[in-house]
Amino acid sequence: xxxxxxxxxxxxxxxxxxxxxxxxxxxxxxxxxxxxxxxxxxxxxxxxxxxxxxxxxxxxxxxxxxxxxxxxxxxxxxxxxxxxxxxxxxxxxxxxxxxxxxxxxxxxxxxxxxxxxxxxxxxxxxxxxxxxxxxxxxxxxxxxxxxxxxxxxxxxxxxxxxxxxxxxxxxxxxxxxxxxxxxxxxxxxxxxxxxxxxxxxxxxxxxxxxxxxxxxxxxxxxxxxxxxxxxxxxxxxxxxxxxxxxxxxxxxxxxxxxxxxxxxxxxxxxxxxxxxxxxxxxxxxxxxxxxxxxxxxx
Length: 298
Known about the structure:
Layout: H1 6-37, H2 43-46, H3 50-64, H4 67-78, H5 88-93, H6 100-108, H7 115-125, H8 172-195, E1 201-204, E2 209-212, E3 223-225, H9 228-233, E4 252-256, E5 259-263, E6 278-279, H10 282-289
Antiparallel strand pairs: 1-2, 1-3, 4-5, 4-6
Helix pairs in contact: 1-7, 1-8, 4-7
């Protein structure tokens, strides 16, 4: 087997997955248009503005938030909450400008929204199943709705009998073959992983985690399984004197031989994993970082 060609197969698999997400996006948008035409949407979604979309997110979260369907969508759009399901404060404080892209698309359909906006729209209109997963997504029973600029009714060819039908990449007859192809690509991808390991581990470099091949060894450093959340968000605060009262509840600390180390996310102290981090308190802030005077010393 010529393993040098495996990356090309992986590229084709990525292309197919990307095409499937385009189908998912079309399904979400089609459901939005269908509900809009039937008058099933709230005023916030029927005539959206940045402020109305923000309000609708808050209302939908409070009325029908489901962890399995919605946690990833809300985390990707609003950020990681301090507690597992505490998205309400994040929704309230987010800048309305973050909704500008989705509002513009719903208003004129001229620009294609990014993936986060599509998933947020799926959350707002209760499209299911969500979020997108290539191994679960199906288009066997697509939602039919007129597309922009299409003046012909369903099933009306307009008399253009000579026009060739547009091919559907994931039509019913091709679905089984596509599934077989994806399975084959998955097998080849994992074979490639065995031959050429990817960076699926990480190590602590002193102030953050760095990705690394699992078979590599770093002197006096523990190599652990890759955690994308920790890799992207867990940082040592190297200038703790800049912390203020606004940092309380957003910073986590641990005492090491009487000296406090603080980090930007919850977790365990990287050098001593048995030590759990605790939220920064007003007492610790005053006593150990001198950001605020102690009571009686003002």
